[in-house]
């Protein structure tokens, strides 16, 4: 009997014991990430339509839970742009941003999405996240990046109703107070320029921290807030309030379920890409199911912290790696940084211009744009390109209900998958000069014998492909009456279902009525077991079955 292993339920017990040298590296990396995380957390809270303080709440306990129960040591769990946008899109039609109702819905959304992820991981269903295919991800992320940037432009330039239906009224308000727009735009575009220069010339330097400090200092010195500029404002000091979520209606709960499931899949796909990159660079293994558990518990913890759904951040995970982090201990130093800010230094965030926060959102998101991926998909497979384009368009059109873009993409993916498998590759084969059975048409090969048709199906034999195989064989037999033997080469068939067995039985009966004998070669074990249990092997007879293609060629081919 297997002994009980407590480490299975508490994976952080597997952490390596730190040394003084590793702790120094982890401390440097952790504080570097923490100083970047603080302004990012506030920025992503505004993107999610939440109060600024909830961004810091989402960066504390959820980050701790995520690293304790996750599987990737350097994955930075916390507020992320894509998850924040999904929160905003999911709740836009239900409440007013930053209102009590909005916060209550965001908390429930965090709990539901976390429960979905936890259950997927607990039941070892992590591979279900692969339902969100690469074309869907390409289409959704490009659309989401465009939406995020567009949503931040009004704040960046200081014109809240920039995209309103009354451009004349907007122009009039700008004309009344041009200095406000100029001042706000100067902070916003100045921050963008500095972030771009930092990324281009000093990619490992935390430019976000420098921009935040400089923007806050200039805002204070120049009197940006008294002059009418929008700043973060007061953030209450202290730990997050651990309370039960407020009550909402059953209809609202039901609305959140679908949004929570899509958010769970998308945010985990985002985190999964970070885990893969980190695992490759560090040559480590990671467990997708354990990571689902960690991410799910982090979201639930975020909900009970009064915050919004968190996810794995690619940019902060990369910074963790570049800064020299050795282990998950680095995250504990990041948490210490956030904790100190919550307890003592929230006053310093008062003067951060919101236009600077908009720049902090726009610049990292800009790197998500990859329109070249559409061109690459089109070159590989046009149906994959169509899936990406449909996902992109539906996501934009369905704004603010962004999850419909993902639903449309997954649905079209399933349709394309079924369509592809309904048209399997079925070819006539013959003996190649290397002694194997190859495509007769491609290599211009003569038949093994004048009365023999050798057929190969390069797909599973199931309810999608069975009819195509039967149609291919019977049509050839009808058009070529000299055919008296059929050789089915099933070496490429690695799966068969009840419909596939029925297809073989029906085909054998039809061919027998036409005076044609059926032979089969290279049956794989898993297919053999099914056919044997169905009694078809005995009905066909061992004299009509060959273990290899070479045996079939030797027995059936005409002498040459």
Describe the structure.
The chain has 23 helices and eight strands. It is mainly alpha-helical. The strands form two sheets. Strands 4-3-5-6-7-8 form a six-stranded mixed sheet. The protein has a two-stranded antiparallel ribbon with strand order 1-2. Helix 5 crosses helix 10 (250-282).
Mean pLDDT reading: 89
Shape: elongated
User: Into which percent range does the helicity of residues fall?
Assistant: 55-70%
End-to-end distance: 63 Å
- The residue ranges in which pLDDT falls below 50 over 5 or more consecutive positions are none
Specify the number of helices: 23
Radius of gyration: 30 Å
Strand content: 5-15%
- In total, the number of strands is 8
Strand order of the largest sheet: 4-3-5-6-7-8
Biggest sheet details: 6 strands, mixed
Which descriptors apply to this entry?
560 residues; six-stranded mixed sheet; 23 helices; STAS_dom_sf; transmembrane
What's the structural blueprint in terms of helices and strands?
Elements: H1 20-47, H2 52-58, H3 61-69, E1 76-78, H4 81-91, H5 100-122, H6 134-157, H7 167-176, H8 178-201, H9 207-221, H10 250-282, H11 288-304, E2 311-313, H12 314-322, H13 329-345, H14 354-366, H15 372-380, H16 382-397, H17 403-422, E3 426-431, E4 437-439, H18 440-443, E5 452-457, H19 466-479, E6 485-489, H20 498-513, E7 517-521, H21 525-533, H22 536-540, E8 545-546, H23 549-556
Parallel strand pairs: 5-6, 6-7, 7-8
Antiparallel strand pairs: 1-2, 3-4, 3-5
Helix pairs in contact: 1-2, 1-9, 1-12, 1-13, 1-14, 3-11, 4-10, 5-10, 5-11, 6-14, 6-16, 6-17, 8-9, 8-14, 10-12, 15-16, 16-17, 19-20
Main location: membrane
Transmembrane segments: 27-47, 59-82, 102-123, 135-157, 177-196, 208-227, 256-279, 321-345, 351-369, 376-396
Membrane topology: Multi-pass membrane protein
């Amino acid at each position: 009997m297997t002994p009980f292993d407590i480490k299975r339920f508490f994976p952080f017990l597997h952490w390596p014991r730190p040394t003084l040298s590793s702790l120094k590296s982890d401390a440097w990396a952790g504080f570097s990430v923490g100083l970047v995380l603080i302004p990012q957390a506030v920025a992503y809270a505004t993107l999610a339509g939440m109060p600024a303080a909830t961004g810091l709440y989402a960066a504390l306990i959820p980050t701790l839970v995520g690293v304790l129960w996750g599987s990737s040591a350097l994955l930075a769990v916390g507020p992320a742009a894509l998850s924040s946008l999904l929160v905003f899109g999911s709740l836009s039609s239900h409440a007013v941003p930053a209102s009590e109702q909005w916060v209550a819905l965001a908390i429930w959304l965090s709990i539901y999405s976390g429960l979905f992820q936890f259950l997927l991981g607990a039941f070892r269903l992590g591979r279900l996240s692969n339902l969100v295919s690469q074309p869907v991800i390409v289409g959704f992320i490009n659309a989401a990046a465009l939406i995020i940037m567009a949503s931040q432009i009004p704040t960046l330039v200081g014109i809240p109703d920039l995209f309103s239906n009354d451009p004349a009224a907007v122009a009039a308000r700008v004309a009344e107070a041009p200095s406000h727009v100029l001042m706000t735009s100067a902070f916003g575009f100045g921050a963008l320029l500095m972030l771009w220069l930092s990324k281009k010339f000093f990619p490992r330097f935390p430019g976000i921290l420098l921009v935040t400090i400089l923007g806050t200092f200039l805002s204070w010195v120049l009197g940006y807030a008294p002059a009418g500029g929008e700043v973060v404002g007061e953030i209450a000091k202290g730990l997050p309030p651990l309370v039960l979520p407020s009550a909402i209606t059953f209809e609202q709960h039901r609305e959140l379920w679908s949004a929570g499931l899509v958010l769970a899949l998308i945010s985990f796909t985002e985190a999964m890409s970070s885990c893969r990159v980190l695992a490759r660079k560090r040559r480590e293994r990671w467990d997708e199911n354990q990571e689902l558990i960690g991410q799910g518990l982090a979201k639930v913890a975020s909900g009970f912290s009064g915050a919004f759904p968190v996810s794995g951040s690619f940019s902060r995970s990369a910074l963790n790696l570049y800064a020299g982090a050795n282990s998950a201990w680095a995250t504990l130093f990041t948490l210490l940084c956030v904790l100190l800010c919550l307890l003592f230094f929230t006053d310093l965030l008062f003067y951060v211009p919101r236009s600077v926060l908009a720049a902090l959102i726009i610049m990292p998101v800009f790197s998500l744009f990859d329109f070249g991926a559409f061109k690459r998909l089109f070159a590989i497979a046009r149906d994959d390109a169509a899936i990406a384009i449909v996902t992109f368009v539906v996501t934009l059109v369905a704004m603010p209900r962004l999850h419909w873009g993902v639903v449309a993409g997954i649905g079209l993916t399933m349709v394309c998958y079924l369509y592809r498998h309904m048209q399997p590759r079925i070819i006539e084969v013959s003996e190649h000069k290397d002694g194997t059975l190859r495509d007769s048409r491609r290599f211009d090969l003569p038949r093994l014998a004048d009365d023999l048709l050798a057929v190969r199906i390069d797909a599973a034999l199931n309810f999608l492909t069975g009819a195509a195989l039967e149609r291919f064989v019977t049509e050839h037999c009808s058009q070529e009456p000299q055919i008296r033997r059929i050789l089915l080469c099933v070496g490429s068939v690695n799966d068969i279902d009840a419909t596939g067995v029925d297809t073989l039985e029906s085909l054998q009966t039809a061919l027998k009525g036409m005076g044609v004998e059926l032979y089969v070669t290279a049956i794989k074990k898993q297919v053999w077991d099914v056919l044997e249990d169905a009694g078809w092997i005995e009905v066909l007879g061992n004299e009509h079955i060959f273990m290899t293609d070479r045996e079939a060629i030797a027995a059936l081919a005409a002498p040459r």
